Amino acid sequence: MDTIRKPPTMADVARRTGVSPMTVSRAFKRDSSVSQETREAVLRAAEELGYVFDSTASNLRSQRTDFIAVTIPSINNANFADTVRALSDGVSERGLQILLGYTNYDVAEEERLIEQLLRRKPEAIVVTGGKHTPRARKLLSNAGIPVIETWDLPEEPIGHVVGFSNALAVREMVDHFVSVGYRKIAFIGGDADRDTRGTDRRAGFIAALVHHGLDTSRLIAAGPPPISMREGADAMRQLLERFPDTEAVICVSDLSAFGALTECQRRGIAVPDRIAIAGFGDYEIGAICVPSLTTINAFASEIGAKTAELILDVLNGKLDQPGRVTIRPDLILRQTSR
Amino acid sequence: MDTIRKPPTMADVARRTGVSPMTVSRAFKRDSSVSQETREAVLRAAEELGYVFDSTASNLRSQRTDFIAVTIPSINNANFADTVRALSDGVSERGLQILLGYTNYDVAEEERLIEQLLRRKPEAIVVTGGKHTPRARKLLSNAGIPVIETWDLPEEPIGHVVGFSNALAVREMVDHFVSVGYRKIAFIGGDADRDTRGTDRRAGFIAALVHHGLDTSRLIAAGPPPISMREGADAMRQLLERFPDTEAVICVSDLSAFGALTECQRRGIAVPDRIAIAGFGDYEIGAICVPSLTTINAFASEIGAKTAELILDVLNGKLDQPGRVTIRPDLILRQTSR
DNA sequence: ACTTGGATTGATATCGATAACATGGATGCA
DNA sequence: TGCATCCATGTTATCGATATCAATCCAAGT
Fold first, then answer.
1. Do A66-164+300-327 and A10-53 have the same topology in CATH?
2. Which end of chain A is more exposed for a tag (fewer CB within 10 A), N or C?
3. What region holds the HTH lacI-type domain (chains A, B) (predicted)?
């Protein structure tokens, strides 16, 4: 009797309960009109049969998947993870599920990923950043679903935006550093053509220095992203060799800033007395390391939460204009700077 | 002329190309038999029409979704992120996509999540850990797809396993600590009933101490998971108050170990001279912090890679027995211990 | 010339839930 | 009592790609 029997369908559940398949379908929905006892009978029969709702059929017929597609540069980044978690929590109460993909900081890869994700017919798509290939832009524009660009303030948004100006945020940090007396200020970041947010931050750094009439040559490129702790340490080593009189350094993220800090510790260089360090992103490590890290809070979770709100509003028809949520990053001054 | 026209289907592409829908379908597959020129014509027409392949229909008819469902406790954990990334990379070459959900270290939440994921009809499901609710076990057993439990060695596996013994790994660390002369050894971890891997690690810790005839009372519970840096620092504070003569402490993860280390630094307690510290998981931070962290490498990426291999083998019919891949964690001895 | 076989393409039915419309019975109100 | 409503449920057709079977054509082998 080891016949491979096909898994039960709604029709099977309907037969067992003595109702129509349509009633079974309704019983599995939240707010549809089925009597309490019918619903319980249906669910009991389903449980007894081991029935598992088949959303592939539901998706096709109802033209809804309850997916929210999301692209992030890296799955290993705590900032983006925070955003995704808040986004996921925000939309899950409406039964929406995150379909996540990572681009590895590569716009060509992003294009492929976006195409893949759109085939799954998500209800909306959230992308990290505002720089895309022309084809990716076209795919997003024509997708017929809400598009939300995050972690950036694109000049020509495709649809909605929940983000902040990376350049401006760093600029404010430079302004602060200058105001407390630092003059020889360096920047540690990745290659120009990969990490677009990192590039924006560097642009803000340079613009600020120019504005203050300071030397803009202290730029250390730490290679292709992700720029993490190891790269930060390596970059600090380079910085100390090439510009030993540097007074302060701003890093593209807290991770690289922490790496830079450890390099100073290994070399017995006093932070912040000999050199000040600032990071970006307010990662957990920055608050707890010794000395604690001056940084910029970009409100990663809030980006996710606001994006979720925006998506729900759009899907509820409460918003027909492109939404624009601007986050205002905060300077967090701690022990690695005066 | 602002009529809302429905998005084009394969039938539209077929009409435009002058072939049958079936041929269009074939043109969109990798290895199906279509002539080169037909395929190009089809793809050109599709591009001109802005056609986007609709996988909801494909999923239903072909009974394949190309999803691999994955549950992890937290999306913000670098270890699990490493596993997921390696898994994703491993299966993506076969066109398989990860459908990710997180359980927040809660088996009831895991049950809900597993049910949600199974409705999407994945080709296989990967779960983190070997402890589940009875209903979750039943759902997984009856799903009719490969089930892979990871990051653990369950006594009664549901299907396949790619993992290691958390207890044994910590036991080896204790053995090492005893061999170099530590006697008063403490453990910092989470609450017993949430983080099952953390609980296993603590069990291994206690078993090892018992084996060596040492005091097992130095246990600090840092609250519900995730146990991160802040919790590690708080726990170290408690430990120093309650057991000031402790010689060494093993933490449930590198993050809590780093937090504990920073607490020592803030208090001017010498590590490792006054107290030794060990972590778990070989996170990036452990290799780069000063002093660097003694830890256990659980090979998170390898778990993902092996899981991917196993899934591909099963889906290719190359494996009909339940697979059992045992990872052997490595002790990594660094500066926070002698 | 005839068979065989591979390559390419087409016709038809189908995957399983549900949108849209229809129906019967109960309830409310004048 | 009569008519409008609402609630619970049923009927039918359908979402869009593709599994399956069938047909055509051309080259190769005998």
1. no
2. N
3. 8-62
* Tokens at B298, concatenated: 């659980």
Q: Mind listing the pLDDT tens digit for each residue in B279-299?
A: 999 999 999 999 999 999 999
According to CATH, the topology of domain B65-164+300-327 is: Rossmann fold (3.40.50)
- What stretch of H or E contains A230? helix A229-242
Is the Cα torsion angle A299, A278, A70, B90 positive or negative in sign? negative
- Check residues 7 to 66 of chain A and report those whose beta carbon is under 7 Å from nucleic acid strand D: 19-23, 26, 32-35, 38, 57, 60-61, 63
Question: Chain D: nucleotides under 7 Å from a protein CB?
Answer: 7-12, 14-20
Tell me the domain boundaries of chain A.
10-53, 66-164+300-327, 166-297
- pLDDT on residue B1: 38
Name the residue facing A85 among B76, B144, B259 (closest C-beta). Answer: B76
Q: Quick check: A55 and B290 CB within 8 A?
A: no
CATH of domain A10-53: 1.10.260
The secondary structure of A180-214 as a DSSP string is TT--SEEEEE--TTT-HHHHHHHHHHHHHHHHHT-
Q: Go through chain B and tell me how many residues it has.
A: 338
With CB atoms and an 8 Å threshold, state whether A290 touches B265.
Answer: yes
**Under an 8 A CB cutoff, do A102 and B119 touch?**
no
Query: Which nucleotide lies nearest residue B7, CA to C1'?
Result: D16
Write the CATH number of the domain with boundaries B166-297: 3.40.50.2300
Query: pLDDT digit string (tens) for B71-106?
Result: 999 999 999 999 999 999 999 999 999 999 999 999
For the domain bounded by A66-164+300-327, which CATH number is listed? Answer: 3.40.50.2300
DSSP B323: P
CB neighbour burial string for B141-157, b if at least 16 within 10 angstroms, e if fewer: eebebbbbbbbbbeeeb
